[in-house]
Specification:
The chain contains two helices and two strands; from the N terminus they run H-H-E-E. The longest helix has 13 residues, at 17-29. It has a two-stranded antiparallel sheet. The chain has helices spanning 6-13, 17-29; strands at residues 33-38, 41-46. It has one domain.
């Protein structure tokens, strides 16, 4: 799924856009997603699609 906006992703996931935006903002701080501003909306872009958990 490649949503065109945070609103579209919120609708698909059943989350409120404001709460979803906060989660995505935190994820963008870690480089997991990019929040790209386009015209009148923000489009989330996944940078990380695979995760490896290393236990030390």
């Amino acid at each position: 799924m490649k949503p065109e906006s945070i609103s579209a992703l919120a609708e698909a996931t059943g989350r409120k856009p404001s709460k979803l935006f906060r989660t995505l903002k935190t994820m963008s701080n870690y480089g997991i997603v990019e929040l790209k501003r386009e015209r009148n909306y923000v489009r989330p872009i996944a940078n990380a699609t695979e995760f490896h958990i290393v236990a030390g």
